[in-house]
Design brief:
Blueprint (H helix, E strand, L loop, with lengths): L7 H12 L4 H8 L3 H10 L8 H13 L9 H11 L5 H10 L7 H13 L39 H4 L6 E8 L6 E7 L5 E6 L4 H11 L9 E4 L8 H8 L2 E4 L9 H10 L14 H12 L11 H9 L3 H10 L1
Parallel strand pairs: 1-4, 4-5
Antiparallel strand pairs: 1-2, 2-3
């Protein structure tokens, strides 16, 4: 894996997790980075008052500004890229093949920018892109909203108490798709207790997903402050959820799955019972209940080897196991 500079959001994640005592290895795994990258970041960009993400980002940018800049695409590389584009290869396919052939690595974003520059100069390379009629927009750091989700609120606006798991009631949501898009599971995870909820739906529509979330959280309405989603259109009715549950809703940045790291990891655990090789149309509520119960009954290292059930009961004073069982069988 080639090294890429840490983003401001990643540095913020490192700061919050490091202050919570999370190991460098676990932080690296959540970010999809190597442990050496996290270790280097903490040692190189730390100030007198410890590691602070904004200060770390400024130090890194200053160091990068005085660093000699390498040419990303040589004349020979541009010629090769143009040749493959005219064969209707996608920028991602070109970047992947160059990396496979151990040539100088360039990202598909670099190739997209090159195509855009060519277009502005009167070139025709953009005609070979599969979506050449759509204006190219930089994938990262933009402020536009092309998700089709009305009144989407970015995760940056989520309160700090939710970011640092300082209370009960901040949830992450996602969907798991069956093989061949046959059925899906709507999943929810409470950030502090790591309590997991799940519900099967036949189709991943906004209506079905909204109804499933309302069903799952019906018994937890006193313990819902925020809901955080990815940018799937199945969450387009987030305002309905906010009104019904009296909570606030937020959306992670595109391609930043680590901002919902707990939910992503829990989905991986649930795949033990519902692997990607099977469809989910025939999955019953009882089967989902049994799988969720097993996950919530396991002691977790991050919870001091308590179970999610135990931690939720400790902070809420109610038995989540009974609430889940009632919701899924009623």
């Amino acid at each position: 894996m080639s090294y890429q500079h840490l983003a401001l959001e990643e540095r913020h994640y490192i700061e919050t997790q490091w202050k919570l005592g999370v190991s460098q290895n676990r932080i690296a795994q959540a970010l999809g980075r190597s442990q050496s990258s996290v270790s280097r970041e903490l040692s190189r960009n730390r100030g007198f008052r410890g590691y602070r993400y904004k200060q770390a980002n400024s130090k890194a940018r200053e160091r990068h500004a005085v660093k000699p800049k390498a040419v990303k695409m040589t004349t020979t590389m541009k010629s090769g890229v143009e040749s493959l584009l005219r064969e209707d290869w996608s920028p991602e396919q070109i970047a992947g093949r160059l990396k496979q052939q151990a040539q100088k690595a360039i990202s598909h974003e670099t190739i997209y920018r090159y195509v855009l520059q060519d277009k502005h100069s009167g070139g025709d390379l953009f005609l070979h892109l599969r979506r050449h009629r759509k204006k190219y927009r930089k994938r990262y750091g933009g402020t536009g909203n092309s998700s089709g989700i009305p009144n989407r609120v970015d995760i940056e606006a989520r309160p700090e108490v939710a970011n640092r798991r300082g209370r009960l009631g901040d949830w992450e949501a996602d969907t798991m798709i069956g093989k061949g898009h046959q059925g899906a599971l709507v999943t929810l995870d409470e950030r502090k207790s790591k309590l997991r909820l799940a519900w099967p739906v036949d189709r991943k529509t906004a209506e079905a997903v909204t109804e499933a979330i309302l069903t799952l959280l019906d018994g937890f309405k006193d313990f819902v402050h925020t809901l955080t989603f990815d940018n799937g259109k199945e969450f387009a009715r987030h305002e309905t959820l906010a009104k019904e549950l009296n909570c606030h809703t937020y959306f992670a940045k595109p391609y930043h799955s680590w901002e919902r790291g707990q939910n992503e990891n829990a989905n991986g655990l649930l795949r033990q019972y519902f692997p990607k090789t099977i469809g989910l149309l025939e999955v019953t509520q009882q089967q989902v209940l049994q799988a969720v119960h097993k996950l919530n009954s396991r002691p977790r290292k991050g919870l001091g080897f308590k179970t999610p059930y135990e931690v939720f009961r400790q902070f809420a004073g109610v038995d989540a196991e009974k609430i889940i069982a009632y919701a899924l069988i009623s």
